[in-house]
C-alpha cells in the first residue's frame, strides 16, 4: 500500500505537468440535492481526465535505461491519452492497446499525442492481455492503468487537492473502475480527515469492486455493456482492492439511464462536458439515498472524453423525456390543402417541425383519410397538451406516439 | 466614462456574490493557432454568464428606497438571469422583459430565479422599449443591460481579473453586443497594461459596434438573425461606444457557421459549453487573421446558456461535415433478401445504421430495381470511402448524397 507521503511526493513531482483543476460550487445541484455540492473538474486536465496524474508520476520515476525501452499500456482511452501525452513530452516511445470499440475521440487523441495505437479485443481486459504480450515480446515497460503503487499515488493527488482546498468537506463521491483513483484519493482524504465519508460509484453493468468487497476477494465478472467504458472493468487490482477495503466507506451502483441524465444536467446546468464515468458520481448523488442533507459534498467529475454523437443522442433522449420533442399522429381527410392546414395550426402554436410523414395504407384509415406523423420540437409537456387541444378545436384528432 | 478605480471598487463590492472564474490554458487550441491560448470561463458563473457582475454591482448601489420600488430590465437572457438571481438574493422584486424568441433555457432559469418574466417583441431592442414603459408606469428602477456606468464597472471586473492573473498576456479577445463587457474590460486592461491588444468580436448579422466605430457615431441596424442572440443588438450604448472607441484596438466579425464550429470544438476539446456569443472570440481566433503567432492570448468565453437542442443540431452538422454521418443511396434488385444483404455489408464495415428508406418510383430506376437510402454513423471520410468500395466489390453501386 501507499501512504499520504507517497501522494505528497507525487504531487510535488507532477506539479509542473498537470493542472490543479478548479472545484466550483454548483448552486443548481446544491438546491436540487439539499446539500452543498462542489464539482472537481478533472475533465479540464489537458488530456480530458485525471489519468495523466498517475501516468506522469509513473513515467517520471522510470530510469534513463527504462525510458529508452519505451512503454506499453492497455486502456479504454483515458489512461491511453495520459500515457501518450506525457510520454511524448518526456521523449519516451509509447504503444497503447485499446479495445476495438473504444470511443473515436479517445482513439484519435491518443494517436494525436504521438502514441502507436493498437486496437485489440472487446474490452479492457482483453486489451490488457495483448499489452502484456507486447511487453514480453518487445521488452517494454508496462504502465498498468490502476494496479500500481506509483499510478495510485498519482491519482491520489485528486483527493489531496480536494481535502487541501476544502478541509470542511463532509463527503467525497468518486467513480470506481479498476480502483486506482479511489484508492489513492481515499488514502489522502482519510489519512488527513478520517471523518470525511468516501463514497465509491460502480456502474451497474460492471460492479467489479462492489462485488469484490461484498465477497471479500477479487472476482472476475462477465463483460458488461455500458456508456461508462472508462469504469467498465471486469476485475479490479490487488492493491486497489486492499486500499478500497481499508479506506472507502460505501460503494453504490448507478445505471446508464441515470448516468445519461447526469451528463445532460451537467451540460445544461454546469456548462461542462462529462463522459459516462465522470458523471457517475453525480448520478449517485441524484438517484441514490446517500443521506447527505445539509452536508458539504464534492463530486469528482473524473473525465470528459465522450464522443459528440453520444452527447447528441443523450440530448435527443432528454428532450423526448422532457416533452420537448414529440411525435404526433394526426388523421386528416385525403384531399389537397389539408396537410398545409394542419401545418398552419402547428406553426400558430409555435411548434417547430422536424419531420413529416404521410401514409395511406393503415387498416385503421378509411379510403379517404390519410395519417400524418409529425416530429415536433416544443417547449415541454404543457405546450404539447395545448397544441393537441388547439388541433382538436380545429376538428383534427392528434395522438401522441410513445417514442 | 468610468476609470480603473470604479472597476476596482466594483470588484470589492461584488467579491462575495460572484465567482472568480478559472482561466485554464488550452493545449489543443494553442497548438492549432500557434500561440498560447487561455480561456476565461465566465460560463461557470452561477447564472452561466458574466452578466451578473454588472447586475450585482448596480443592485448593491440602489438605496433602500429604490430597492423597495423593485427593478425592471430588458434582456435576451443573460442579463435577465443576472438581475433575477441577485435581486432575489437581495430581496428585490424583479420584472424582466425578454424577446419572444429567447432561448427556453434562459427563460426557464430567469423564472426559476424568482423574477416575473414578460415575453415581448422580436428582439432585444423591442423588449427594451417595453421595459421602459413598465419603468414609467410602475415607477421601477430600470437596470440597463449595458449603457450604465455601474453595469460597465461590474463587467470590467472580467478584464481586471484577466490582467491581474496574467500580466504577461499580449491580447484579449472579447465579444461585443451592446458593448458593456468590452468597455469595462478594455478600460481595466489598457489602464494597467497599455500594450495589451484588446480585440472585439461582433457577430456578422448584427455588427452594431463595428459599424458605429467605422462611421464615427452610433447607428441603428436592421435586426439580424443569428445563433448569437446574446450579442445581437441593433444599437450600442453611448457610454459603451465612447469607451470602445477609446480603449479597443480592433473589431472583427464572425458568422454563425464559424461560431457553430467554435462551439463544437469547445465541447470536444475543452469539455465546456459555450453559447453563441461565448464562442465568438474563439471563432475569431480560428478564422480571422489576427497576427497572434507566439503570443499569449486570452479568449473570453462570456457565457454558456445555450439550448441543448441547438447543441444537438450543431453536433449533427459537425458530424456531417466531418464525414462521421453520411447518407448513401444504393440501387438494389427488387427481390426478397437484397436489403438484408446490403445491411450485412454495412454491418461488416462497422458502420452504424441510423435510418433506412426504400423507394421504387424514381424514373431513374427500372421496374425491377429499388433504391435504398441509408443514413449511417461512420468514423470519418476514409471509413465512408472504404465502405463504398466494399459495396462496389459486392456489385452494389452506392453514391453519397449531399446533405
Task: Compose a concise summary of this entry.
2 copies of one chain form a homodimer. Chain A is an alpha/beta fold and 403 residues long. Chain A is built from 16 helices and 14 strands.
Defining key terms:
homodimer; 403 residues; alpha/beta; Rossmann fold; Alpha-Beta Plaits; 3 domains; 6-stranded mixed sheet; 4-stranded parallel sheet; 14 strands
Description of the structure:
- 2 copies of one chain form a homodimer.
- The model of chain A has no long low-confidence stretch (mean pLDDT 94).
- Chain A has 403 residues and is of the alpha/beta class.
- Chain A is built from 16 helices and 14 strands.
- Chain A has 3 domains: 4-49 and 148-317, Rossmann fold (3-Layer(aba) Sandwich), CATH 3.40.50.1100; 53-142, Rossmann fold (3-Layer(aba) Sandwich), CATH 3.40.50.1100; 322-400, ACT domain (Alpha-Beta Plaits, 2-Layer Sandwich), CATH 3.30.70.
- The first copy, chain A, starts with a helix and ends with a strand.
- Chain A is 45% helix and 19% strand.
- In chain A, the strands form 3 sheets. In chain A, strands 1-2-10-7-8-9 form a 6-stranded mixed beta sheet.
- In chain A, helix 1 packs across helix 8, helix 9 (180-192) runs parallel beside helix 11 (238-247) and helix 12 (256-270) crosses helix 14.
- The interface between A and B is medium-sized, with 32 and 32 residues.
Amino acid at each position: 500500500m501507499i501512504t499520504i507521503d507517497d501522494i505528497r511526493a507525487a504531487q510535488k513531482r507532477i506539479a509542473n505537468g498537470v493542472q490543479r483543476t478548479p472545484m466550483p460550487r454548483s448552486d443548481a445541484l446544491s438546491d436540487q440535492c439539499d446539500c452543498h455540492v462542489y464539482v472537481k473538474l478533472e475533465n479540464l486536465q489537458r488530456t480530458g481526465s485525471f489519468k495523466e496524474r498517475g501516468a506522469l508520476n509513473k513515467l517520471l520515476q522510470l530510469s534513463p535505461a527504462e525510458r529508452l525501452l519505451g512503454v506499453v499500456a492497455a486502456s479504454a482511452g483515458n489512461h491511453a491519452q495520459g500515457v501518450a501525452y506525457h510520454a511524448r513530452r518526456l521523449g519516451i516511445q509509447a504503444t497503447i492497446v485499446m479495445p476495438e470499440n473504444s470511443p473515436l475521440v479517445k482513439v484519435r487523441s491518443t494517436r494525436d499525442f504521438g502514441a502507436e495505437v493498437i486496437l485489440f479485443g472487446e474490452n479492457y481486459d482483453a486489451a490488457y492481455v495483448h499489452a502484456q504480450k507486447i511487453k514480453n515480446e518487445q521488452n517494454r515497460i508496462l504502465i498498468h492503468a490502476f494496479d500500481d503503487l506509483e499510478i495510485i499515488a498519482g491519482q491520489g493527488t485528486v483527493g489531496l487537492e480536494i481535502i487541501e482546498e476544502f478541509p470542511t468537506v463532509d463527503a467525497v463521491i468518486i467513480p470506481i473502475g479498476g480502483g486506482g483513483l479511489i484508492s489513492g484519493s481515499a488514502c489522502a482524504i482519510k489519512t488527513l480527515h478520517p471523518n470525511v465519508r468516501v463514497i465509491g460509484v460502480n456502474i451497474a453493468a460492471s460492479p467489479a469492486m462492489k462485488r469484490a468487497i461484498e465477497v471479500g476477494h477479487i472476482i472476475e465478472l462477465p463483460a458488461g455493456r455500458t456508456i461508462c467504458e472508462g469504469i467498465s472493468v471486469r476485475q479490479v487490482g490487488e492493491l486497489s482492492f486492499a486500499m478500497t477495503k481499508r479506506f472507502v466507506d460505501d460503494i453504490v451502483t448507478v445505471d446508464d439511464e441515470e448516468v445519461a441524465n447526469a451528463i445532460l444536467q451537467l451540460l445544461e446546468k454546469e456548462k461542462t462536458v462529462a463522459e459516462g464515468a465522470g458523471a457517475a458520481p453525480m448520478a449517485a448523488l441524484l438517484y441514490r439515498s446517500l443521506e447527505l442533507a445539509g452536508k458539504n459534498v464534492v463530486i469528482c467529475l473524473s473525465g470528459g472524453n465522450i464522443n459528440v454523437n453520444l452527447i447528441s443522442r443523450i440530448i435527443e433522449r432528454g428532450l423526448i423525456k422532457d416533452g420537448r420533442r414529440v411525435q404526433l399522429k394526426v388523421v386528416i381527410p385525403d384531399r389537397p390543402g389539408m396537410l398545409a392546414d394542419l401545418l398552419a395550426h402547428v406553426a400558430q402554436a409555435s411548434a417547430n417541425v422536424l419531420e413529416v410523414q404521410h401514409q395511406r395504407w393503415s387498416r385503421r384509415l378509411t379510403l379517404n383519410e390519410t395519417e400524418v406523423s409529425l416530429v415536433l420540437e416544443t417547449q415541454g409537456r404543457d405546450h404539447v397538451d395545448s397544441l393537441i387541444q388547439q388541433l382538436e378545436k380545429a376538428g383534427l384528432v392528434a395522438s401522441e406516439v410513445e417514442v
